[in-house]
Amino acid sequence: xxxxxxxxxxxxxxxxxxxxxxxxxxxxxxxxxxxxxxxxxxxxxxxxxxxxxxxxxxxxxxxxxxxxxxxxxxxxxxxxxxxxxxxxxxxxxxxxxxxxxxx
Amino acid sequence: xxxxxxxxxxxxxxxxxxxxxxxxxxxxxxxxxxxxxxxxxxxxxxxxxxxxxxxxxxxxxxxxxxxxxxxxxxxxxxxxxxxxxxxxxxxxxxxxxxxxxxxxxxxxxxxxxxxxxxxxxxxxxxxxxxxxxxxxxxxxxxxxxxxxxxxxxxxxxxxxxxxxxxxxxxxxxxxxxxxxxxxxxxxxxxxxxxxxxxxxxxxxxxxxxxxxxxxxxxxxxxxxxxxxxx
Lengths: 103, 230
Fold this sequence. Notes:
The complex is a heterodimer. Chain A is mainly alpha-helical. Chain A has 2 domains: 1-30; 34-102, no CATH class. Chain A has helices at 2-26, 33-55, 67-83, 86-102; strands spanning 56-59, 62-65. The longest helix of chain A has 25 residues, at 2-26. Chain B starts with a helix and ends with a helix. Chain B has helices at 2-35, 40-49, 53-64, 69-94, 101-104, 110-123, 127-154, 162-174, 181-200, 207-229. The radius of gyration of chain B is 19 Å and the shape is globular. Chain B has 2 domains: 2-176, no CATH class; 178-230, no CATH class.
């Protein structure tokens, strides 16, 4: 639990530092457009990796596909493309994933 | 005086629809934080002190997967790199706030950047507007995190499929952004790279960091190729 509080403190400081550096130090400087794009793509890479890590779960030293997670993810991907609403898409994905788990 | 009133009113009106969307994320974050064994107080404190959807979501996902403090911190630094861009772009619009800039800087993130930069472009510097927008988002984020963590504490995660909520939430965050080829290329590369890394070293700590650093390079390559083709 103490570790969680240390983590929260460190995240708070590092996040604020990134914000204040932008406002106070980076202001007025030209940043290369390539670097700008790179920064914008980073979250996409991290989020994709996180999804993969939840679908492919290490079991006895090998990777196993979690089908409820895979089916839930695909359902949400299709739903959000159609209805374009965040929470309902999450709920539908979880429900279909649960169904896949208990079937 | 009228200018002030109008900035407050416009800020609040323009922030409100986005605040509803932020509250939806906040609700998910709160529920997921309890899955990562973060207490109700910890979950809310993180929202109050960090105030960053992406950092907080990724942190709770990594904690749940058993990641250590160093890799979580490194990943959050990667995620926060884009704040440098936002801050630099907003600096001029916040300049009249003088010493209050230190407080307003706390609100530099995705959504306030979108609203703030378009306001400054049209009407020039307006720290008050930015403050109202950030304040509205802050309250929506903190309150919804609290409600989410409260719900997460009350239910049995497996039975309600809350463990499924993690990957599904990330899919819902990712998919709407996959519009342009470079972004799609980044996501596909990240997926392939993550599978490859996990195959070689199942459950290792470095998959997220290595993927986060390398996959955007492919996005840049695709962007460059499409520009060259034009």
